[in-house]
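Appendix B. One record, verbatim.
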Amino acid sequence: MSEVLPYSGLTGMADAVLSEVAALAKLACDTGETASINLTAMPLTRQDREAIETRLGRGEVEATVDAGGRCDVWETAYAGVWFVRYRGLDDRVATEAIEICPSPLILMSHPDDRRVAATRLGEDLRAAASAAA
């Protein structure tokens, strides 16, 4: 069991999570297997969460998705390691996860949505061409 460090609020869980991230990142490189670590389900203190976020840092890619609540997504300073924070309608954090993958699922468009968009784009281009003629 992790020893609680006095006064700091750190429990040792941050280091354990970061070690797991490193192992899963290596596995992803070796096998292509993706993984997700649900931070919300862990007994982390606020200081543990801050330590994880600080140690992973921020990379070049950030996105905000608004769909039934806001989702903030950013690639950490380590390519393929993503921090995903889902917020409820009240803007409180509902779920936090670290995803080890090329791109988090929340950023991927659904195949049905892509089909509809492709059809709509073709129709819009044909309508614009007809109007110009």
